[in-house]
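for the recovery benchmark. tokens below, seq after
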């Protein structure tokens, strides 16, 4: 072979070899540098296990610092049957709460991986000892505990299996309470056995939340609501207790109540009726109509109105009846009409109010919109625009029908009257206590001034007369002046009112310097209990009696206010009628 040809072949072979080495180098560059992260992740997925370490969820505390909910750290114990040593069976069985015989029976079942204990509480030493045993896997979990059981269950809510808030306060403040989970990355062999730890990130515990609830008041509210359902046969109900000066929700009870916290959460028993449910309030809404008339000078407490002997036709608007037509009331002062809850008198007053002005008054007290409470699921309520009103709507609104409200919105109306006219945003959470230290308070928030103090004082006097001499006598409390209003509202179905009722009583005390607002709502109580002045008022009284006996909220006042009596109003009205000829339009049959 010629020398020149030999050299050419050698060069060709060298070029091929060099090309192969170049390709190999490029491949190594791709594997080792360019796609290193990708292949490293694939390799780790085959040999590592990533375990989430749950954060401890923050506690819920009442306003006195009593713990309402907290997390318990527990473990699930699992074993690889082929790797467990016989000398370790006793320790594993003891930790799992079973005998060695039961453990051996579990290990003989089909399969190689078995969970032998769930929600097991272990000491730190026992947990470390178990984790060091071959074939044993410990999974750390947290479980929510409620030391007061079902007390305030619907308002506190619950957490789901993933540890996230699913209802109530637990849901509303889930981001604050849940914290940030940690992670442990462990190496494992071909049989899944842990052989080392690659990395670990500690969890960040959630923050604690201090609530406005008071355990003592909540227990009283829960117990008396359950008693009321048993005595009246009502389908359900709600009780709210508020601090009128901060709108703190001191108690929030709903019925029917869950029998236990067993992990079975049905909507019917876990619905917070005080926040979710809408109903027509009836006469408990009459303070708004009263404000509208008093503010515009259409009436004064001593103004006379004719109650038409309990039944009156309003022309195309149809008949309107008083709650107790057999009493056949004639001329009543406005204060008496309020105390005796005359629908006819309030329908006449509403007829004299321009529709947009009555609508604005209702909106001014927060009806038709959310109160802004820091709880999930609150609806707006229902209040139609004046342009959509029928010829009867304005009259019905005057005594609390053709409008839907929540119990919380209605209770907040009375808190506004009690505190001198400030509409506040209801508050469930008082402050957050950070796990890292320090806290953050949520101050009371005023939405608007709905009443001037003088008008609020007049409303308080009218509400006092309701309990002293009117439909709310059963709400009276020995040694404390109570103010409030009864409500008995027919329920509507398919556009017409039917023979089922919502009974309610809203009030506050002591009337001269209110410290506590209460609302009782009973859904479809039976028989004579359908009257708010019978069932709801009596339940309100028992709640307040319990508060007086058991807590510091209602200490007897040093001085009692002077209660305006009907005889005094009659005398004042006669004097004014003689001295003045000013009167409303004749069709209202009103005189001064």
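predicted aa per position
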């Amino acid at each position: 072979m010629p020398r020149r040809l030999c050299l050419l072949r050698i060069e060709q072979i060298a070029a091929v070899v060099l090309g192969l080495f170049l390709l190999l180098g490029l491949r190594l560059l791709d594997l080792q540098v360019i796609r290193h992260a990708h292949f490293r992740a694939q390799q780790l997925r085959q040999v590592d296990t990533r375990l989430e370490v749950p954060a401890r969820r923050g506690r819920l505390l009442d306003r006195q610092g009593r713990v309402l909910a907290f997390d318990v750290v527990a473990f699930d114990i699992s074993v690889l049957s082929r790797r467990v040593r016989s000398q370790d069976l006793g320790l594993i069985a003891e930790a799992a709460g079973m005998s060695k015989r039961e453990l051996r029976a579990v290990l003989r079942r089909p399969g190689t991986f078995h969970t032998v204990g769930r929600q097991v509480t272990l000491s730190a030493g026992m947990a470390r000892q178990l984790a060091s045993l071959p074939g044993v896997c410990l999974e750390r979990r947290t479980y929510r505990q409620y030391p007061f059981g079902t007390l305030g269950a619907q308002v506190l809510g619950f957490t789901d299996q993933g540890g996230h808030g699913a209802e109530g306060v637990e849901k509303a403040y889930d981001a604050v309470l849940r914290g940030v989970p940690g992670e442990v990355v462990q190496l494992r062999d071909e049989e899944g056995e842990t052989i080392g730890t690659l990395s670990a990130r500690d969890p960040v515990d959630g923050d604690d939340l201090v609530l406005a609830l008071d355990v003592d008041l909540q227990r009283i509210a829960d117990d008396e609501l359950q008693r009321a359902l048993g005595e009246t046969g009502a389908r359900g109900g709600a009780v709210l207790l508020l601090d009128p000066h901060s709108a703190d929700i001191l108690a929030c009870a709903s019925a029917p109540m869950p029998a236990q916290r067993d992990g079975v959460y049905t909507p019917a028993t876990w619905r917070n009726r005080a926040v979710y449910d809408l109903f027509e309030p009836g006469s408990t809404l009459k303070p708004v109509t009263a404000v509208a008339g008093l503010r515009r000078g259409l009436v004064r407490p001593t103004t006379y109105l004719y109650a038409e002997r309990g039944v009156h036709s309003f022309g195309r608007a149809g008949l309107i009846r008083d709650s107790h037509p057999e009493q056949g009331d004639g001329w009543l002062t406005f204060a008496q009409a309020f105390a005796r809850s005359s629908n006819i008198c309030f329908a006449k007053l509403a007829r004299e109010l321009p529709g947009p002005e009555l609508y604005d008054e209702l909106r001014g007290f927060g009806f038709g919109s959310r109160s802004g409470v820091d709880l999930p699921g609150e609806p707006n309520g229902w209040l139609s625009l004046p342009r959509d009103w029928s010829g009867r709507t304005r009259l019905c609104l005057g005594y609390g029908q053709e409008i839907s409200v929540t119990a919380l919105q209605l209770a907040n109306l009375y808190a506004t009257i009690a505190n001198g006219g400030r509409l506040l945003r209801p508050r469930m959470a008082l402050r957050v206590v950070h796990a890292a230290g320090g806290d953050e308070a949520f101050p009371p928030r005023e939405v608007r001034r709905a009443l001037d103090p003088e008008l609020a004082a007049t409303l308080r006097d009218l509400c006092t007369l309701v309990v002293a001499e009117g439909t709310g006598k059963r709400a009276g409390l020995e040694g404390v002046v109570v103010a409030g209003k009864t409500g008995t509202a027919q329920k509507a179905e398919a556009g017409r009112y039917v023979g089922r009722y919502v009974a309610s009583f809203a009030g506050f005390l002591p009337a001269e310097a209110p410290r506590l607002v209460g609302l009782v709502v009973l859904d479809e109580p039976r028989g004579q209990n359908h009257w708010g002045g019978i069932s709801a008022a009596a339940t309100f009284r028992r709640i307040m009696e319990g508060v007086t006996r058991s807590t510091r909220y209602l200490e007897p006042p040093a001085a009692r206010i002077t209660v305006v009596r009907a005889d005094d109003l009659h005398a004042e009205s006669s004097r004014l009628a003689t001295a003045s000829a000013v009167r409303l339009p004749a069709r209202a049959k009103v005189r001064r």
